[in-house]
Structures
1.
Amino acid sequence: MQIQFKATKRDAQGTGASRRLRRAGQLPGIIYGGSEALPITLDHNELFHLLRKEVFHSSVLNIDVDGKKETVVLRDTQWHAFKPQVLHIDFQRVDANQKMHLKVPLHFIGDDVCPAVKLGGCIVSHVLNEIDVQCLPKDLPEFVEVDLSALEAGQSVHVSQIKLPAGVELVQHGDADPVVASSLKVKGAADAESEGEAA
């Protein structure tokens, strides 16, 4: 699914110009990467609603800037300290032939039917909710699924155990293999078990 939206090139720059744009319901932004940085103006309400969709943060996006198509990914947003308002937004151009590096959300399945929950009286804790991947723009997944249906009591699932889609590689940070999800004994269940053993 390709997300598309419109923008216009922004000529006036600086704090005062940005403030005037925001008062008019517009959102200042920038597209960088490639040949030149391109200051743009977007409709605040449209972008505010798009930013609430998970897929917007981990997809290749198409921006129509005055009729010229730009292929980008979202890189950064600045929010107002207490108002539901986006102050500035950054996009980075992507090249169809160059691998890109992006955070992708994790979707967990099977944690309600795994042995840790069904038999072990555990709860499953999701430790990470996104991972760093690199791939060509065409291979970018909207999310990565983590199947927890075989998770046993006391076990954890690590990043290295996640099955990634074709063409997608994990970006490792050092030698660490972080925990993605783990099963934790519920205190009440553990106490009941030890009382049963004592009896």
2.
Amino acid sequence: MYDAKLTSTQQQRIDQINELRNEGIAPYGERFDRTHSSTEAKSFFEAEEAKQEEKEHYSIPNVKVAGRIMTKRGQGKTTFLHILDQSGQLQLYIRKDVIGEEPYAIVKRLYAGDIIGAEGSLFKTKTGEISLRAEKITLLSKSVNPLPEKFHGLTDIELRYRQRYVDLIVNPEVRNTFEKRSQIVHSVRQFMHSKGFMEVETPMMHSIAGGAAARPFITHHNALDIDLYLRIAPELYLKRLIVGGFEKVFELNRNFRNEGMDSTHNPEFTMMEVYQAYGDMNTVMDLTEEIFCHAAKTCGVGYNITYQGAQIDLTPAWRRVKLLDLLKEATGKADLSYSISKDEALELAKKSGVDIEPGDTPVKLLVKIFDEKIEHTLIQPTFVYEYPKEISPLSKANKDNPDIVDRFELFINGKEFANAFSELNDSEDQLERFLDQLKQRESGDDEAHMMDMDYINALRYGMPPTGGLGIGIDRMVMLLTDAPSIRDVILFPAMKPLAAKEQ
């Protein structure tokens, strides 16, 4: 828990706030109408400067700016401040004989962290710094907590996540990351609209957890007296819309999974799911490549990027390889198939050095070999396709081989970024697979799909051939901002409460 006891510095600042109130000065001001941000003010000055025939001894009036004080230094009757707003910093030049004795007395009582407004004229100092010669200062908000002198580095990384508000104030590169995230998300939405997709919103609370193999969060609705699940995926609702006649839909929103946390996993995360009627796995494979390339170009990083020291080339077309071919190459077993016997699979798993659990089937052992021994080697963008039917209960079976489904996953720098397939639209086949998943749940697999008879009922009305796609937006942002952890691209990542952590 945070300590409610005030430090001497905090108490000193609160005392000063009370003194200001007693003097009739509002320590927390009202609306302030800025004419320019810090960056706009500098650009405005440079534009006006370029118009001047005479380059010396002039200034540009009528500028109002506001921001947080980051630095303060004084020289007798003159004070220099740097204020920070979202766009950047601007220096303020404040003279006692210009703003007046009483206002200047307030300036002398300002600290780094306080928020002020300033009005005056722009000029360039002898050192060439564009500054504002203040004619009026308005106090907008006093700070009680002092800004930290150092708020970066690995030793403070957890504190930065917990107190993101301070992280954003003092680390401009963090603000840049989240500004770029906003650009990326906007560009993805813009691209989807340009391709004729309609953005929709589906329920966040489900009566049946489905659409992915994951452990859900459970909550309770008091009025209905029923348990509900925070959604692990919007898939089954989006496919109901395809049944209903919408042909190209997407949803870009949060999912929730009650699972572990690491550099690529957070309990709540942002996904985009896309469904296109009359398409298939190959349709959305092409679309996935276009989405990533568009986002990379739009946010300014281009196709050749460096991610955590690895050189990655996003230039189309990306590699496409069958999962079984990767397994054959890694194990040296040329005749490998998903019909492998249990004994052969166990031997192969032991030889590959993967963990073996009692409930592992031959197919699950092969997938483990891929997950633990191959996935991390896929550095350049790679579509891995033709997954085994056993682990893909919502995917359509391949017409030439019933043991596999038309499904792919996208890997970049050894991590999964997207999952997609030709959607299973045979209602009775889907029912049989749900029943098989139900058996797995009864055997102790709490990540297996639940039975959703309403979804079966929807399929029985007929769903056209459909390509479905899910993209991890947080991971995309990580890639395009060179962020090492998902917590670096989520403004307020999940953290263990301090009280629980200290017990």
3.
Amino acid sequence: MAHPLHQARGWGVRVIETMVKSSESEKPVTNEELVRLFGVLSHDLKSPIFAVDGFSDLLLGDYADKLDAEGQDFLNRIRSSAQQMKRVLDEMSHLVKLLSRPNAPRPTPLREIVEEVLHKHNFMIEEGGVRVDVAADLPVINADAEKLREAIGALVSNALFFNDRPAGECRIAIDCTSDSNGYRICVRDNGIGIDPRYAPQVFELGGMSKLDKARGGGPGYGLYLAKRIVESHGGEITLDSSLDGGSRFCFTLPA
């Protein structure tokens, strides 16, 4: 039986797939309708999730003495999964709204964006003893700050998740180069890498989940989101990777 968390991730990916297909049909649904639809679905799903979380909490508080260690462990796992499912729904709601609105570009210091992303992932970075190298001379670029934060965040999250090296040996490097055409931002890691034959799949919805099921799916929509955001800015995203050789994701943004 599938783990509830994996089911929640799969549900989120399927909803986005349906929304994307609907927007490409002969009679597309408007963005406003899609956002409302997702809001209703999210609300309806949260009610039973809150019930599972609440009643499992009551069981732990009022009946813990009637359960052995294994029973208490099962209930704690139920609570943890329910809480994670709520977080997934909140995140998916945010992403749907983000993708549905037009870009709002403005001069944005790239360093501030990178620092915000690293702060968000600070727990995983510290727990894994990850060394993060950030280029000293990051420029100010014209982009939608919120969307750019999500795109870079997806690449950093992917770099952290797909790395099996012992604590203290994980590496991530973030840099940016520029020319007359624009900027090229890269996130490099020394993780498990990806077979070049499957590189195009990682940008599909659920692509990383399909390639590495052993980890429980991983981020099923992060790289897809990054690709959509980059392309909406007129850029493109690429991957240079090999098995056990780490990965290097780069994307361009016009000047």
4.
Amino acid sequence: MIAINKLIDHTLLKQDAIESEIDTLCEEAKEYDFMSVCVNPSYVKRSVDNLKGTDVKVCSVVGFPLGMTTTEAKVLEAKEACDAGATEIDMVINVGALKDERNNYILNEISQVKRACGNNILKVIIEACLLTDEEKVRACQIAVEAGADFVKTSTGFSTGGATLHDVKLMKDTVKDQAEVKAAGGVRSVEDLEAMVKAGATRIGTSGGIALIQGHKNKTAY
């Protein structure tokens, strides 16, 4: 199995995050050689500058956390983040449109954001805790059709995070056409290993250091 550190997107997305906390996040990511830091768009450039000369990627979020902004806004957000140096984008789908079965709307939106990302990685957050199993499957199928590189379980800001059931269902749906990111709910190395066994190849967490050190992750995300 890949080293635990390279499964982790070291995450700080809270509304009151300040610059010094972003700097610390990046220093931690360098020290533990995490796969990426995941930050809000306004902190992309600072994170890129902090991580220059390392192989730690900068990931940013689009339409976060509700996914209810317009397609045009999500496209602009993705383009700006990539132009600032982000190489991975985690976008939130419009859950209401999915529930209304406006599949073409979802498909078009993801496709446009993927085009805005260019060769950069796009992860599509389906917010599984708000969906039925049928809706989770449909969201994953649409994401694959639109060219997404990953499907992601959760924002970590709704009613629940990743579950083994959801990760397995999502992986069974996308098969080898996309990867799965589990976010939220990973409290221990055992949890992480179980998520990987269920099909996840990336873990979004603010408790990555605790996991590496073999402690319980006590953070909400």
